[in-house]
Amino acid sequence: MVLIKVLQVTKPLSVQLQGVSQDLxxxxxSVNDCTDLLTRYRNDKADFALLFSxxxxxxHGEIQMPCIVARQTQRVNVPTKTPQSIIVVPFxxxxxxxxxxxxxxxHAISQSFCMVCVSK
Length: 120
What we know:
single chain; 0% strand; elongated
């Protein structure tokens, strides 16, 4: 359910990026809209609970906390007390981080183009 929700947000951006003609400012607006919406999903308690309850339905029961140790080096050791935070938050954070990382340079370029257009 979490994957479906994230892909519903990112698919229009993916289709737009694969188009023949690109408008950099429109693409950057779409990227910012996607990251804002994903951040809202991450921070919204009601939507977050709905996503997790759907995951529990698919799992056919309660999702348990994985074992967390003090010095774990081979996998992510998210400091949390609830299983919801272990599953949903790292996935959404990764998606937001990837979008931000991939388009930071493009954002700077689009802003410099806007500065050139405004100054003329």
